[in-house]
Write a structure and sequence with these properties.
Blueprint (H helix, E strand, L loop, with lengths): L9 E2 L2 E2 L4 E4 L3 E5 L9 E5 L11 H21 L4 E5 L15 E6 L12 H7 L5 H10 L17 H14 L6
Antiparallel strand pairs: 1-2, 3-4, 4-5, 5-7, 6-7
């Protein structure tokens, strides 16, 4: 399946066209390089701006309607019973890429019990695990690094893994499936 668009799509300064699985005139949804839980995706406006307050009315409406639509699909595909929908609006709030983005994380009963319970997701988003910008920088450096021990089996994914998930989710966003 080819990318959804031939035009480049940027998440901040990072080219993410191959990770896009849903596009609207004003927003896009991408698979996450290092998901906190399976199915963790991001929804962003097409225009690169750092803060929610920088968006126009139409961009805000489109962004949140896209979050709602993508969230329904993610919940169905990943057989979740709930979703975490989160936005870190600015660097001091933990935003690691200066481009408005909303995290959609599918949740199931007891999915984080081994990490301190359901609220552990907030610490994960704010900590190293949620630092999307650093994960993109790590990929950009493309130099061998000693692997970090990750007791939770969470790892950065290859471009191919992300493309395959983006293609699968794009098929799930087709109108006949919603």
């Amino acid at each position: 399946m080819p990318p959804l668009t031939s035009k480049p799509v940027y998440f901040g300064t990072y080219l993410v066209t191959s990770s896009v699985f849903h596009l609207t005139p004003l927003s896009f949804a991408i698979v996450n390089l290092k998901p906190i839980l399976p199915g963790h995706v991001l929804v962003s406006p097409r225009r690169v701006v750092p803060r929610l307050s920088d968006l126009s009315h139409d961009e805000v409406v489109d962004l949140f309607l896209t979050v709602q639509k993508v969230g329904r699909m993610i919940e169905r595909v990943y057989k979740a019973s709930s979703l975490n929908i989160a936005m870190q609006d600015g660097a001091d709030a933990g935003q690691s890429v200066p481009h408005v983005h909303t995290h959609i994380i599918p949740r199931k009963a007891a999915d984080l019990d081994d990490r301190g319970g359901s609220d552990a997701v907030y610490g994960m988003l704010e900590g190293e695990e949620g630092d999307v910008g650093e994960h993109f920088e790590e990929r950009k450096r493309k130099r061998p690094q000693f692997p970090k021990v990750d007791e939770r089996t969470r790892h950065s994914r290859s471009e191919q893994e992300m493309v395959e998930e983006a293609e699968m989710l794009a098929r799930e966003m087709e109108p006949s499936r919603l």
